[in-house]
Design goal:
Layout: H1 2-42, H2 48-69, E1 79-82, H3 83-91, E2 101-107, E3 113-116, H4 118-135, E4 140-149, E5 152-159, H5 166-169, H6 187-197, E6 201-206, E7 211-218, H7 227-230
Parallel strand pairs: 2-4
Antiparallel strand pairs: 1-3, 4-5, 5-7, 6-7
Bound molecules: adenosine-5'-diphosphate (ADP) and magnesium ion.
Adenosine-5'-diphosphate binds near residues 127, 135, 187 and 211.
């Protein structure tokens, strides 16, 4: 327990420092991006696209840090969207991995819409799938299931990877907790804070044989009170 608390304290301290740094470098980076667009116009060169994409990468990391530590600094208008549609979108980014990992889609009620910050939710689902692909070392399976109950939309993402040891489960979502050599440990923090903000519940099951993440998006009619739940609506699309 002491070791666990020490880990949590250490990670929290790192989190605070890096949130401050992220905040400081976000504005200059955004300014550079703007001037880059002007220079690209004035001085055409094939190298700009490399500079652009490297910069996007840096801005992305800063955003991830901020969305974890200072979510109110990352604003995005809310809208209605279909989870199935964004999953299709995300999967196209993993097309190379899909040669070795078989992805099974079990989509029911594909027209079910949710309400919230689409890009943020997209990033969260991307982060979950990225972990699933990374967990499967060679070949394996990922199952994505989308269904609805009377008062919610339920998304499950299962992978046939090695699973997560019981004593590590409580550290999931702590910023900077990672077991990977090149991991940042920010993915699940973004996932947890995003779903919390959207009033969605997330649970993880792992018993040494794969991992299952279940996300339950509540509906306004579900009777769950509070501003969190009220931000997410279930709307039946036209057939
Ligand atoms: P990162 O991927 O950078 O390590 P994350 O926050 O995404 O950071 O994940 C934190 C840790 O949780 C991972 O390093 C890994 O140990 C564990 N983990 C997350 N998802 C899975 C999964 N599907 N299977 C096995 N371990 C996982
Ligand atoms: Mg990750």
């Amino acid at each position: 327990v002491d070791e666990h608390n020490a880990t949590l304290n250490r990670l929290a301290a790192i989190g605070e420092v890096s949130a401050g740094i992220a905040h400081e470098i976000r504005n200059p980076l955004t300014a550079v991006k703007g001037f880059l667009q002007l220079m690209e116009r004035d001085y055409p060169s094939p190298h700009w696209s490399v500079v652009q994409s490297e910069l996007e990468q840096a801005i992305g990391t800063v955003h991830e840090l901020l969305s974890v530590s200072k979510p109110n600094l990352v604003t995005e208008p809310k809208r209605q969207f279909s989870l199935c549609a964004i999953i299709e979108n995300i999967l196209s980014l993993f097309h190379k991995e899909m040669y070795r990992v078989k992805v099974h889609k079990r989509f029911h009620h594909t027209k079910a819409m949710v309400y919230g910050k689409q890009n943020q939710v997209k990033r969260a689902i991307f982060n979950l799938l990225k972990n699933a692909f990374e967990a499967i070392e060679d070949e394996g399976n990922i199952v994505i299931e989308h269904r609805r109950s009377s008062d919610s939309v339920i998304l499950t993402i299962s992978d046939s990877g090695p699973g997560i040891p019981q004593d590590k489960l409580s550290l999931l979502g702590t910023p900077f907790f990672t077991t990977k050599d090149t991991g940042t440990g920010l993915g699940l923090s973004q996932v947890y804070s995003t779903f919390y903000e959207h009033g969605a519940d997330i649970t993880v099951k792992s018993n040494g044989e794969g991992t299952v993440f279940t996300i339950i998006f509540p509906t306004v009619s579900s009777g769950i009170d509070g501003s969190r739940a009220a931000e997410l609506t279930y709307v039946e699309g036209e057939a």
